């Protein structure tokens, strides 16, 4: 069953008198429970596609369906509501807040959940234990290794039990050993039912996915 459908999506960026076409009548289906790699040269629209799927950026025209229902986003708050409990995001450089502990960074993923403070803390600790990082909960991101930071970022992304995980170059800032650890986490999440879309330039990352989509630059 398709969780996500994009139909005839068009996206053009305008800078002064110039225009850059990113997508022209672009179609995409993401099946529930799948793990999909998005590849392509720089400027082909990989990150733009993730941002459209996340409701951070909007197509100029076309239709976006989630579980068969049209996604209509007119303002930033619409995107926040859309992402809540649906979408978890993982980025290359972690996007952790250094002034917060690892635990507080994970707990951030539940700020819009409507859960009580005690429920948020319980769930954040549970997901950190699941990823083997409960021992890092009081530490600042400043003292964590790259792999530890990415585990915290993954915990933050999955703490709200999202329907789909969107990952933008999740291993791009990691060494090869740590990359293998993070890939195993992503595989385990997928095998436990998470739908995952990952943007990557790394063929090894793509090789763990059930499907690879190559974006062509217009």
Characterise the protein shown here:
With 218 residues, the protein is an alpha/beta fold. It is 33% helix and 28% strand. It has helices spanning 46-54, 76-83, 102-107, 117-130, 146-158, 176-191, 203-207; strands at 2-15, 18-31, 35-40, 61-66, 69-70, 87-91, 164-168, 195-199, 211-215. It has a five-stranded parallel β-sheet with strand order 6-7-8-3-9, sandwiched between helices. The protein has a four-stranded antiparallel β-sheet with strand order 2-1-4-5, with no helix packed on it.
Short structural summary:
The protein is α/β, with parallel strands linked by helices and 218 residues long. It is built from seven helices and nine strands; from the N terminus they run E-E-E-H-E-E-H-E-H-H-H-E-H-E-H-E. It has helices at residues 46-54, 76-83, 102-107, 117-130, 146-158, 176-191, 203-207; strands at 2-15, 18-31, 35-40, 61-66, 69-70, 87-91, 164-168, 195-199, 211-215.
What's the structural blueprint in terms of helices and strands?
Elements: E1 2-15, E2 18-31, E3 35-40, H1 46-54, E4 61-66, E5 69-70, H2 76-83, E6 87-91, H3 102-107, H4 117-130, H5 146-158, E7 164-168, H6 176-191, E8 195-199, H7 203-207, E9 211-215
Parallel strand pairs: 3-8, 3-9, 6-7, 7-8
Antiparallel strand pairs: 1-2, 1-4, 4-5
Helix pairs in contact: 5-6
């Amino acid at each position: 069953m398709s969780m996500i459908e994009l139909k005839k999506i068009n996206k053009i960026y305008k800078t002064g008198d110039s225009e850059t076409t990113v997508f022209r009548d672009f179609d995409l289906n993401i099946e529930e429970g799948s793990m999909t790699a998005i590849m392509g040269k720089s400027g082909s629209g990989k990150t733009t596609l993730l941002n459209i799927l996340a409701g951070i950026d909007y197509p100029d025209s076309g239709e976006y369906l989630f579980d068969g229902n049209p996604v209509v986003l007119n303002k930033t708050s619409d995107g926040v509501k859309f992402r809540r409990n649906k979408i978890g995001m993982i980025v290359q450089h972690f996007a952790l807040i250094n002034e917060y502990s690892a635990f507080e960074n994970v707990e951030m993923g539940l700020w819009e959940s409507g859960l009580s403070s005690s429920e948020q803390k319980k769930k954040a600790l549970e997901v950190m234990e699941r990823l083997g990082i409960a021992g890092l909960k009081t530490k600042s991101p400043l003292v964590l290794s790259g792999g530890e930071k990415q585990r915290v970022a993954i915990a933050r992304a999955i703490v709200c039990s999202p329907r789909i995980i969107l990952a933008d170059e999740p291993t791009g800032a990691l060494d090869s050993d740590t990359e293998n650890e993070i890939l195993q986490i992503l595989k385990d999440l997928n095998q436990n039912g998470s739908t995952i879309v990952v943007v990557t330039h790394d063929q090894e990352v793509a090789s763990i996915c059930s499907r690879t989509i190559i974006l062509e630059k217009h």
